[in-house]
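Researcher: Quick one. two chains, 390 residues in total.
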Amino acid sequence: MSRTLIRDAEDALLEERRRLTPDELAELAALPDESIPALTALAHQVRLAWCGPEVEVEGILSAKTGGCPEDCHFCSQSSAFDTPVKATPFLDTDEVLAAARETAELGATEFCIVLAVKGPDEKTLQRILELVPVVGEETGLNVAVSAGILTRDQAERLAAGGVHRYNHNLETSRSFFPSVATTHTWQERWDTCQLVKEQEMELCCGALLGMGESVAQRLELLGQLVELDPTEVPLNFLNPRPGTPLQIRKPVSAMEALRWIALFRIALPSVILRYAGGREITLRELQVMGMTSGINALIVGNYLTTLGRSAEEDLQMLDDLQMPIAALTGVV
Amino acid sequence: MTPGDHCTGCGVTDCAGCLPALDPPRYCNVCGGWMAVRVTTGGWLARCRPCGSETTAN
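Model:
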């Protein structure tokens, strides 16, 4: 039965070159653990066939940390929770440039400036619009921005200001979202994602697994991402942060993480699927397996407020896998 | 952490060390004060707000 399901999915994705239906995805999600290696092997084939062997490497920077008025239960930067991450002001231009240069020196092609805000106020938007061209011109990096919920006017100005990709995560399914945040709605996130696409910026829209959502809710999220059709999906696994409501949750197991990496690739065959936060504590020594389970991009080095494994380890991993580094954009 | 020092995870002196493995210091080892931390791709810089001491890694 398992072999038949995987063979049928292979035929659909590689021969017919069509996307799977929600029912077909649900059947794959229900496969027993013994089938995970076959599922990840299929996901790797799909990635190579739809996207190629290249890997996009990105560095991210928290340019304005902490003090966020939102109550996302996973986040150490929320002012709603007593966490060790306190508010610090917007970094100055030299600090942002130094961080971008450091990222470029590692061979990355993408640099994302991230701000812990509900959405940008006018002063913040002006600072972003000043920074983006400077960073791009000084480093040659593609500059992405993550600054929360946008108005149409703000989205227009960011697009006109050279922001080629905007990050705004759905994080989880519509049905589970009220368990994750109460100060804004899933619909507000969806609307911002639509504005980003309307303004022809590339949409980077990520997920965070391991917050207590069910398999059905993960599949619901996949369906919503299929509908949204982002250029990039950064896939995060919960790293339970001290002081947050989700600090008591256990990280996703390594094999479960690999199963869902594969399912994300199979559901979104042409997307840039990026390794993001939590992979170190979730996958530990199995991180290389994610690269052969559908991942074709990664955040290198550190994250916003926590540390990753060394950039050198990741770059060596890519070299060993014979996966060249390249800037990617929506394929197909 | 050595005896008498402040824990960089919580700032107190009677803690055996609670800083998660993949975190930069959050509190000052010298005075226990809160540290402003800038994390970049290749490193971090932590500056103690009360006493001004800095630690860094690249």
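The beta strands of chain A are 56-64, 110-115, 142-146, 165-167, 202-204, 207-209, 232-237, 272-275, 297-299.
Researcher: Thanks, that's what I needed.
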